[in-house]
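User: My collaborator and I are trying to settle a disagreement about how two of our proteins should look. Neither of us wants to argue from intuition anymore, so we agreed to look at predicted structures for both before our next call. Could you fold the first one, then the second, and keep them clearly separated?

Assistant: That sounds like a sensible way to settle it. I'll keep them separate. The first protein:
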Amino acid sequence: MPVSRRSFLGGGLAAAAVAVTGTPLLAGCASGKKNTAAANAAVKLPTYMKYGEIKPDLPGTDVVLDGFLKYPANPVKAIADAPGDGKPITFMTNIPGAIPPAADQNQFWQEVNKRLGSELQISMASNDEYNDKFATRIAGGDLPDILNVPPGTPQIPGLLKAKAMDLTEHLSGDAVKKYPFLANIPTLYWKGCVFNGAIYGVPVPRGMSRTSLPLYRADLLAAKGIKDPAPKNFDEFLALCKEMTAAKDNRWAWTRVPTSYVRMMLGMPNNWKEEGGKFISVYEADGNQDALEACRKLVAAGVVNPDTFSAKAAARKQWFNGGIAAFDYDSFVAWNQYYSDNTAGDAFAVDMLDVPGFSSGEGKVWMGAALNNVTAFNKASKHSAETLLKVANWMAAPFGTEEYLFRKYGVQGRHYTLEGTDPVPTKTGIVETGIGLQYISDSTLALYWAGKPQVPQNQHKIQEKIADRLLYDASYGLYSETSSKQWSQLTGVLTDLENQIVQGKKPVSDWAPAVKTFLSSGGEKIRGELQDAFATAGGK
């Protein structure tokens, strides 16, 4: 189902926000909310100015990402002066992998501090623990200079207004050109940083890089004589899954039930769609009964690892890397991560499956969430907005620059070795470099994998195929207070029911009454708030 990489925060942060401001954030009349939506729409977003010094081998478009077959031989030193002001800068973030060694035992971190010209003090938590840590720090008023604000944070406009710098004068329109690598972030991504009629943060862009389809172990399929699989409908897809399943040998086609993929076969909405000003949720859209029936067939056919309903994401990734499962529904970011985690040797190969129509033709593809997070600057920071924006600009230097090479790979000799012009991480590099710099700011993803030009070639190829079939979430850039408080709970109930239905424990007929409850318990109110925000913004 269409959810962000991290699940929405629960009531703890909403309560923390009340503690910070003394009142429920954004409490007020409908006219006040409409005025805010109008003010948001009136904000002049930062001018997009693409950085032209680096020429990709595989040129992208406004949606297809640039691809590179090798790292440029002479990386451009794009920033002459250290961005810091000589004083320590504090930052709080999640870390997707293992927590790295502390700064005093981490030569990469020490070199970051030297190149920044300020000591970067990072407070870290795992993905699973970050939401709680974020809520605790907000409630205690103990905020760092730079704050990674997770997607779905409850009542985010009031929180940012109370605690974050208004960056509008520094970033709106051509003002952003002072920070060329922030200007290199396409305008679309800044839309998610606008609240209270102002720009309150810097985006960490994702979009196409977070677009998900079935990743498959091309080496395992090739061993079965299957090359470039392209099922033409659901029935052919099911047959392919059966062919890749041998339960007696502890082998299954799927790490989990590909419900989102089946919904895309049916052309269903990406979270919310808008038609003539009316918003329609994926949960109420036509096609859910067919999608659930189809997923029941997949489970009944035994093509999904039966442990999936109790397993965590890390276990499912291990199944895919270990060859226990041949397919996993995930993104272009995950595609690269699987190569990073590869323990199967040189034969290991990953590719991505296109989506057919359920009966015939072509399916639609859900565009990935625009933002990983918004990075806000503490209003009470002793650093100037200009200093913190210079740091964010340094973090956003794109692929092909010397800054990017260091930020992603570290120092040659210790953190990576060169094979030709390609940086290949060492074990030390993998351990030391994962300090979360990408969550301060980042450039859009470049399609690339060191020493394997076929990886960006395959990634670019599938992106070009799906580019004109992308469906966008119509709620992006619109704020619903009810959604910020209740979405996780409301959709959690539907997810639980979905799991029961696809396992055959409850009938598909239970879905329709559950959706009515979803709507009456808050879904209808969310729809209304989104529609009002959309209309007030002039239908854009």
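The second protein, kept apart from the first:
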Amino acid sequence: MRTKLVLMASAAVILALPALAQQIVPQPVAPAPVTQNSAAGSSSISTSPEGAADETAVEEVSNANPAASLGPPTPPVEYPGWARRDPWTVGALDPRGAGLGDDPWGRANGPFLSMLMRRMATPIASRWAHIALRNALLARVHAPVNVHPVDWIAERAWLLLRLGEADAARLLVAGVDADRFTPKMVQVAVQSGLANSDPAALCPLEDGIRKYDPAIRALVEAMCASLAGQPDSASAMIDQARRYGRIGGVDLALAEKVVGAGANGRASTIEWDPVDSLTAWRFGLATGTGMVPPDRLMNAAPLQLRAYAARAPLLTAQQRLPSALVAAGMGVFSSQSMVDLYSQIYDSTDPTDLGDSDAWQLRQAYAGKDAETRLAAIRKLLGTGKDGLQKEAARALVARAASLVEPSAKLGGDAPELISAMLAGGYDQAAARWIPAVNGMNAEANDRCWAMLALAAPNVADVGTGRITAFIRRDKSRDRMRSALLVAGLSGLGRISTDTANSLNRRYDLGLGHVTSWTTMIDAAAARDQPGTVLVLTGTGFQTPLFERVPAAHLYHAVAALNRTGQDFSARMIAAEALSRT
């Protein structure tokens, strides 16, 4: 009987171990000492020190034996002190590497910057301004004064999302400890998860969603229960949301589809016919389960959603391609990103289907058998751009291939687009190799190429007034818009004197002397050496999707401020882009 009681007590202890293991952190046990018997010429291992209790004995744990009872469990520690992140300094880019110095915001007022960022209409006119602004928002620098650090991160992430930068926004959101989220940060984090086609990203936010976004609470809880391996609870929550919730139709069906993608496995049919618009919720849940919304909804969606679709991880490269062209035109995708995407399409296409596909043409642009074959492929790819964004995307796509073309005056018909393509990819030095060849081209090609190179080429000290005057006289654009942008860019870069710029402005009525509160603010930010503030104000001054609508005075002050704050490359690329895209 004694043996039976002992065995029963042992079983009780063993059954309790799994639960205890979840609560108690095991303490390290010192290894047993090893002793050697030299007299016998052999070694033996002692499993317990002398005088220790026999470890094989079983001691019954009960209320009658409190000495053997276990102490209280150690409270869980989610964030050790050494693992906490400083909310005042959150970012993914080294500011010095991005050309922003150590203190991009200086003493700029945080609420003022937040207001500018919140009110900025997107997308902005310039692809290169977009890229520079994104880098400033991603810089790992101290938050400006008079602003809550987490709310400041939320404002940065929200602007990035409105620029179409889903991945960049996610980097900022992930840099903040979840227990420090403010109401604004919770809302932005929800939008970031949807933009990244990641419904699971909503699960760590459940507590905040209950407080600050209750409309989606029930559906988020159901999705997260399924993803956590609780299919019965998830099904019950979805059924309850269908009966009593405020969200129905396709929004509920998509949440049910996410539930089915988890441990639940329940099927859900999505009816897109009654849907007339694509919201962030619909986009995020659809693409998060590998579903592409219908073309009519995608084509009518905001450009930001198109940029999100370009990087949706569950979509194929071919499915992402139309949106990738939009993303590259905006500045979300780089030239290299586009080449990588086309390379994936090339690899996944059957050789018999390559034919004259764009993926094949891109290969020919790099590896064609001779110069004419490569140039013909570049021409064909450049011809695929239908509207402004797609045209700029095509230029970015062939930028590297264009930089390998040997400059020649005989290529006057191709030179403007080749130079535009190189500048879209940032190959300023490769573009500058065309300067000697430009002089042998006809007047129209000469003017277009010369204007871009005068602005983009590095190490240009001065530009002759006579050449500028000849350009202005031949300019056929409305209200001499291109001439105004040229003079604005040259003056902002310091490649013509202030007196020369004023003289040309008065003679041809270019409108460069227009002064507003915005011009005053960006000049003051440059004088105080605040490159980050200058970039936010540049975005504010470029709030239009078309470069034709950017006032020449805005280009002048933006380029001058960027140049003054050590952002020479961005200043040159933005100025040259103005002539390339008009």
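Some points you might bring to the call about the second protein. Residues 1-59 have pLDDT under 50 and may be disordered. The chain has 31 helices and two strands.
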